[in-house]
């Protein structure tokens, strides 16, 4: 194993060196997966968000305390009735193709997010009725109803702006060479090998950008990723295993970013109505889904796989979050009750199910623990390891029965639940749709007071808990490691690497 790791580290180092000959300063980042696409309208992966943070500035961003702050916007104002949001834009901003960023570009981008047939941003912006250009640096968003998560949506891909000229010229090829207004522009991508971005000299905030080139290298094996960091072939890696924390702490050449308050989660998405793969006892009977959950010991998973570094959870918000619904606490493991529920459901063990799992060491280990736990109640989980982006495609196609998959989390709870459980939303792979749930989630979107929003989420949780379309397991922490030569690096709680202010000491 050590020889294999050393060989892979050498190969990666050679690959990196070949892409950096012309770069004066070069930041090399190891990713746990190969991203999907870099078109903000179509992108759907967490690692894609990391790359897009360097390519595409947003109307708003978040700071280290999860506060929403302006980026391409300068300010915003909401009308007394909550149905008109006026946004003032930053002057003097250019896209990577030299085209000016203005109100017309904002309207074009938001309309594209909302209207493109394959857009993954539709649910995030569904309450916008119309985008109006008030003047070259002012847009008005006319809403169907008050929409409390709007600004939070615009801190992520829904707020990323693209060049209208580039989109019109490239058509469906825009996905291969995105043109945005971020600090770095797209240079090269070799799938499963590297993504190369180069500094954009006309970036509006260029005084905060100190590195000429960034190369992202997908390295799914966490051991190899860490080996490359320790050897100096990488400068920063995302999501180290909690079990590797002592190794990083003991290395004077490395620094560690310890877990932040969790906003992400990992869970079991259940196929309820997406193709014939849903036609099995789990997909068709809520009692069977409740039985499966009762086989799970979340604390044991956290202890065995993650050295206790994560937060066990049974909702889209962590137990420490203000929107956690305490009325529905985490159920304790109860194998006898699980067996009784299977009997009530008229199901005779073994209940054989295929569990699709992204091919990552820690997630694979979680699957194996789940497999062993579930077997005690009569479930036979067949683990199907799948390359990460392929698993996303399979999820969309409905080619799964159970899918162990994480969500990187958002600052507002809306996008942590509605995209996966709302009717006809882009990440609702299991095709769950319930009128009561949807009405409650819509209500939570339409009010701004935390107490009223939480009351609405409690209504939603009551129905979700009964239907059990998704079994939440834990809230993962973003544990990053990086070279001690990096200066000025700060990590926001959303786990996104922002290149502003990073320097490499000589």
What's the gist of this structure?
The chain is an alpha+beta fold and 506 residues long.
Written description of the protein model:
The two termini are 33 Å apart. It is built from 16 helices and 21 strands. The protein has 506 residues and is of the alpha+beta class. The longest helix is centred in the first third of the chain and has 18 residues. Helix 1 packs across helix 6, helix 14 packs antiparallel against helix 15 and helix 15 packs antiparallel against helix 16. The strands form five sheets. It has a seven-stranded mixed beta sheet, sandwiched between helices. It has a six-stranded mixed beta sheet with strand order 14-18-13-17-15-16.
Describe the secondary-structure layout:
Elements: H1 2-19, E1 26-31, H2 46-55, E2 60-62, E3 68-70, E4 73-78, E5 84-89, H3 103-115, E6 128-135, E7 138-143, H4 150-153, H5 164-170, E8 184-190, E9 194-199, E10 213-218, H6 222-231, E11 236-237, H7 245-249, E12 254-257, E13 265-270, H8 281-284, H9 286-294, H10 298-306, E14 311-312, H11 335-344, E15 351-358, H12 361-375, E16 379-386, H13 388-397, E17 402-407, H14 414-421, H15 435-446, H16 450-467, E18 470-475, E19 480-483, E20 486-487, E21 503-504
Parallel strand pairs: 1-10, 1-11, 15-16, 15-17
Antiparallel strand pairs: 2-3, 4-5, 5-7, 6-7, 8-9, 9-10, 11-19, 12-19, 13-17, 13-18, 14-18, 20-21
Helix pairs in contact: 1-6, 9-11, 14-15, 15-16
